[in-house]
Fold each of these.
Amino acid sequence: MESNAVRQRARIDPTGRYTVQFHFDTAAGGGAKASRPVRMAQPHAGPGYGMHFPVKPGTEVLLGFIDGDPDRPIILGAIPNESAPSPVTASNARVNQIRTVSGIVVELDDYV
């Protein structure tokens, strides 16, 4: 994800789209070489309602392409990795969890 250095948040345009930098794009220029605006799939969306958990700069995302068209990318989801691990691991595998960057946690324990 590309960022706005002043606020350290991912760059989001007025319609909620992001710019991404591809791992294979090794040219100098950073943001100047970023993608066109890319929408992010959401679990709930419609006219005047929906939900959106903004991703942070440096988040690794999975892209898909509508009808296989490389000019129509869409963010399918955020991918945990070594530098940004999943909040649910082997140590707490029975919980369902939402954890915000400020530390707010919503946790559902499915212990049966």
Note: The mean pLDDT is 86.
Amino acid sequence: MMAVYTKIFRGLLVSLVFSSFSFAQNVTTEILESAQDYSDRWVTYGRNYGAWRFIPDNEINRDTVADLRPVWIKQTGVTGGAFEVTALVNDGRMYLTTANSHLIVVDPQTGDELWRYDHDFENVDLCCGPHNRGVALYEDMVFYGTLDARLIAFDAESGIQLWDTEVGDYRESYSITGAPLVVKDMVLIGVGGGEFGIRGYIDAYDVYTGELRWRFYTTPAEGELGNDTWEGDSWKTGGAPTWVTGTYDPETDWVFWGTGNPWPDINNKVRAGDNLFSNSVIALDADSGALQWYFQTSPRDEFDHDSTSEPMIIDEMYEGELRKMIVQVSRNGHVYGLDRLTGEFLYAGEYTRVNWAERDESGKPVLKEAFKEPANEMVFPGLYGGKNWPPAAYSPDTHMLYIPTTEWGTRFIRREGEARAGTMDLGGMPQFDVSGTGWVVAFNMLSGEIDWQVEMPGNFAWAGTLATGGGLVFSGAPDGYLYALNDETGEVLWKFQTGSGLYAPPTSFTIDGKQYIGIASGTRNPATRAGVATGISPGNYILFGL
């Protein structure tokens, strides 16, 4: 796992446009650990290490949101995939990544392009589109992963490439679509490829050199904890990918990450056992990658109910006591509350229609008799969830999670026999019911119940959410509208047609007292893969202000 060190310009670099900032504001460990306190920047994927996606600023509020208008639109010129980025902002630069691994840096106040990098790569095996969801920042460096499973570091101001490391072999169907996570002097990244029979892992690399510091495999080898939950050698191609960005708690010095489906997705007959650590939340020591605890949400899964969603770090009341929690919204239809220090199961609440299982006292699903042969019934949530990768937001003002939710069903038709690793082989065939509905769901953390839900036009919700101190929740829909909702009632207070379907989470920051809302617009979506014609539009980034 050798790093390639270079000091050359890659792609088109344009660095003659100066921002309004007069001095460098490098991203330090202290800034990352207190990111929630900095409204003038968005420096890590989930806004803070806990992945709240909450900004306390309130210039844009229920009374003023009607005056929200576009400030600028950046046309990326990129087509061929959904524009799913969470834009980071720091020191007069906004960082955008697009489909097919393009990195574009713009001035956040004007949209003017400062520099860009266009990654060249061979054809890559992908299950679900050529997406890229963002970058990570540290000091004066920017890091991003590529579809051909490389992790690359750049000088943030000039775009000069600093190092380039192979995370996985794309010829073995490894890929990267998620944003990296910087923890101290390491940059962490997960991998995709769960539909191709990879062996999943999480890597930590030195931020300065790109050298591998540690790797945690999500399917344990012989002699390791959990290997006895796999039949024979099935762990070697067991999947459990790690393609969504994790979180970090400086107090415990632990990293929390969600893992995906075991492979083959549908045919669990060839992998008897619980298949650890697939469909799990795992806690790892940040310095060594050593496992601290795990909680599995769907053992021996056959419905592709990933638990890759961000493990949110939240302190909330539970049974009259303030608890340090990990909260994860799983694709299987449940919000899980876990003790952050031990992994102890606290509760699981349904946030969408769940028909396939009951739960026992430990939080484990108990499969209903009718679903033991999955081809017989339509499973809700289906293959896409529930909540898929689009991130939820948490508001400490309302104590609610705002969850983008797709209520589609899937009938899973198992194919007998061995699956073929290295090819997209699910071990069967999913049949979709795409007549369902997309929602933004407000899940009350204090009651464990749904307070309200608002339908998103276009029959699924794939945009992520943003909560604000102005009493608003922002989210987008496949119909191209960006919506502002009352965070207490769900009432639609404002909407704007962006010109293409929205499949990215909104973000916000404030510069010189002026608050902005930004979102990426551009479509290639799950409905297309499920047989619904929606088309592909170029990727544009739109910034809004009063």
Note: Confidence is low (pLDDT under 50) at residues 1-23, 529-533.
Amino acid sequence: MTADAFTGPRPGLRADRARTVVVLLSLWAWCGLLCFPMIGLNEDYVDAPTAFGSGGNVLLGQIAGLALFLTSVALTRPFGLVYSLGRLSLAQAAIIVIIFVSLCLQLQGDEGTAFVGICYTTLLLVAALALSVLWTLEPDDLAHGLTIASVVFCLFGVVALTILGLPENRNVGGIQPNLFAAPLMIAFIFSQFRPGLVSLAIRILCFAMVALVSSRFAVIGCTTALVVHELTFRPLTPWKAAALVLGLFTVILLWPNIASILALDDPNRDVSSGFSGRDEYWYTALAAITDHPFGLGFKRATPAEGGHNGYLKTVVEFGVVGGGMIVFLFATALASAAAEALRSADKILQEHRFACARLAGLVALAFGAFFQPQLLSLGDAFGVSLLFLLFRPRTSPVARRVPAATLHAPAIPG
């Protein structure tokens, strides 16, 4: 028996494990700070979702979580940002370049507003690269980390319902339905990165809570993520085809109940409310684009000018050319993720699961961006998760030097 059997892991391995745990702890704290402060929102926010993050404890939570995560990454993996930047695809790198060039747009207006805009844009760049560092963790570490992050988001929904009670007019206390549902949809997406009973329970709980507040974008987003993941992760077998047919008949049979959950029978919220019901918002955004074709700069548009649509706000902020390119490059990255999910079928199971779960998340978020105030953001679970899933650097498969059990973060059951 060797001496290592008695002395345990070498100091270098213990240090690497400690750095991994620090990064994951800061990620979980950031996830909690993005959603739990919403439990204290007052009624003024119920009918003004675009005002989310404008001040108070919510803004303090956003700042604290972002600062904690960036600090932990800078201290534990100082060269990770440079590594990630060098491993980005052409589409991902082009988005980074466009955001960087958009700093010029911040020079308009008064000095104070310009300074704040420059800070926001710089933080967006750094945060995108810092989140991409998570992909350089050991696969087992990342799987456990995302599962616990999904537990945090799921607990937000449970705690909010426990403290504030069941929804009234779809609002949970002072939390607007889509604000309540967004972290739960992200929990659903993250849970697909790891198999097991815990992940399954998270998906069931989150879908139930999303349906409880009748958040259409989140219900459809969760369903889309599940379908895309299942269709890409496992080949279409006769059993799966039969399940799809059975599911279709179930939808037809239970359509009255589904229509009630989605509030399709509400005359003030019919099936088209997600599109035509936002006409006024969209016209305001189009007017802002006409007035400022080169863009206003990141975080410079008012809530009304953003059109309550992530894609429109991107064009408002980055201009017709810059914003249009970001949207196009986002679609390109989505297509690349789909190709990667299909190619990964011949790789090890965990790599294939990651690729399929990432694709499923990106598809769900791409749909949800039509109904979210912004596509690129640092102040909510939707925006942060999109940055994480979008900026995955290319990685080369390497042989592991030590067993995964030596490095991964504390395991959870399931």
Note: The first helix runs from residue 4 to 7.
